[in-house]
């Protein structure tokens, strides 16, 4: 099928992006990497929960050139290195978040997808998934997206969700998540034929 295929999935919270990545992983028979990447680089579940994709405290950390003593920064760099190493070995995989589209932007076999959705759809999905009121779901959605945006914009020169940083941006509200998976698979098939 493909010599090497890497699919990166960036997503808004509540868009179904993680579910879409899981389905793509199944359909393409590729391993899926998400926050569990951090287990591969030696971090505990507690550390992952505490520091993953979170900003460091600038008052408690120091950066000299590319090096930092912030655990959040070290975690991010180790994650980026892990993704790069997988790609350099010729591995095929699906990765969720982690600024992977930027880490792998020079790799011709990496295809970056950003999944978004309208607010009402996201709030409804979050409320159902986490058993929350719509008000609480909206608050959680905004908090998570602010966190993702900050993390991404800290580690990338392209803004989070900016269509110029992705090969494909797709609104899962339009097709629903299952048909969004189909649309992405068609996109990948067309890209490989180019």
- Tell me the strand percentage band: 5-15%
Q: Which value, in Å, is the CA radius of gyration?
A: 17 Å
H/E element sequence: EHEHHEEHEHEHHEHH
Instruction: Tell me the helix content.
Output: 40-55%
How many helices? The count is 9
* Structure class: alpha/beta
- Assign an overall shape: globular
What is the first-to-last residue Cα distance? 14 Å
What is the spatial order of strands in the main beta sheet?
2-5-1-6-7
| Strands, count | 7
Average pLDDT, to the nearest integer? 87
Largest sheet: 5 strands, parallel
Low-confidence residue ranges? 57-68
Tell me about this structure:
This protein has 194 residues and is α/β, with parallel strands linked by helices. 52% of the residues lie in helices and 14% in strands. The chain has nine helices and seven strands, in the order E-H-E-H-H-E-E-H-E-H-E-H-H-E-H-H. The strands form two sheets. A five-stranded parallel beta sheet has the order 2-5-1-6-7. Strands 3-4 form a two-stranded antiparallel ribbon. Strand 3 and strand 4 form a beta hairpin. The two termini are 14 Å apart. About 6% of the residues have low confidence. This is Cytidylate kinase-like family protein. GO terms for molecular function: kinase activity. InterPro entries: P-loop_NTPase (IPR027417). It comes from Luoshenia tenuis. Pfam families: Cytidylate_kin2 (PF13189).
